[in-house]
Amino acid sequence: MPCFRGREKGANRGPWQSAPAKLRRAVIKANINCRGGASILAMCICDFASHRNRLNLPFVTTPARAYTTNMQALSVNGNYYEVDVEPDTPLLWVLRDTIGLTGTKYGCGIAQCGACTVHIDGVARRSCQIQVGTLGSKQVKTIEALAQNGRLHPLQKAWVEHDVPQCGYCQSGMLMAAAALLAQKPKPTDADIDAAITNICRCGTYQRIRAAIHAAASA
Ligand code: FES
Ligand code: FES
User: Fold this and answer.
1) pTM of the entire structure?
2) Structure confidence by residue, pLDDT tens digits, 171-216
3) I want to staple 158 with a disulfide (CB 3.0 to 4.6 A). Which of 35, 180, 181, 216 is the partner?
4) Digit-coded pLDDT (tens) for 8-37
5) Which of 122, 145, 168 represents a domain boundary (last residue)?
């Protein structure tokens, strides 16, 4: 029986003998309980051992599977992060799921709603469409860093004063879009606001957003 070769004195240990005792016990037990699949499995192991011995092939130890790491570096709100994600992972996913900054919201995932708006080097961008591997040394800023040193951004104050949010889901994206606008144009006109704030609010808070932006601009 070829499958006993591995038991001969001095013979190389075959896969069956090299297998952990726990696995061998499990196969034997399964073999007793079920003479179908388990028998075939045991026969295959023994058969392979016999061929290996006949051809005098060395055993090759397969190392534990080495998972490739895809460490991506990014700077968010002044902090440096290294995250183990694929380079084409959307920034939004990294912010929310990997780093844990959940103030930035997922709305549509196709660059339409603006709920995911963050600043990249000061420019309002939709993070659902930014691949984290493309960021390089660019600085990402999220809604969590809009207030500084415990002081609300003028827009946040105006948002409170004008009671802007309803459900609130779109508002972090709205605020980030508005903040980028004010940084670029401290006194925006209605036309500037219309051109810059293309975010969608399902609750229809557009008029209050406009009023709050004007209020913050003149504060
Ligand atoms: S989730 Fe990014 S634009 Fe809607
Ligand atoms: S406040 Fe509800 S979606 Fe804008």
Assistant:
1) 0.70
2) 999 999 999 999 999 999 999 999 999 999 999 999 999 999 999 9
3) 216
4) 343 444 454 555 565 555 545 554 444 444
5) 145
Q: Is residue 139 lining ligand 1, measured as CB closer than 6 Å?
A: no
Full domain range(s) for residue 104: 71-145
- Our answer on whether the CB atom of 202 is closer than 6 Å to any ligand 2 atom is yes
Place of tokens 């295959």: 44
Strands 123-126 and 117-120, by their bridges, are antiparallel
Q: Is residue 63 part of a domain?
A: no
Which residue, of 145, 165, 187, is where some domain finishes?
145
Ligand nearest to the CA of 200: 2
pLDDT given for residue 90 in this prediction: 98
Domain presence at residue 65: no
Residue 183: count other Cβ atoms within 10 Å of its Cβ: 12
Residue 199 in contact with ligand 2 by CB distance below 6 A: no
Rounded to the nearest angstrom, the distance between the alpha carbon of 34 and the centre of ligand 2 is: 61
Domain assignment present for 60: no
Distance 164 CA to ligand 2 centre (A): 9
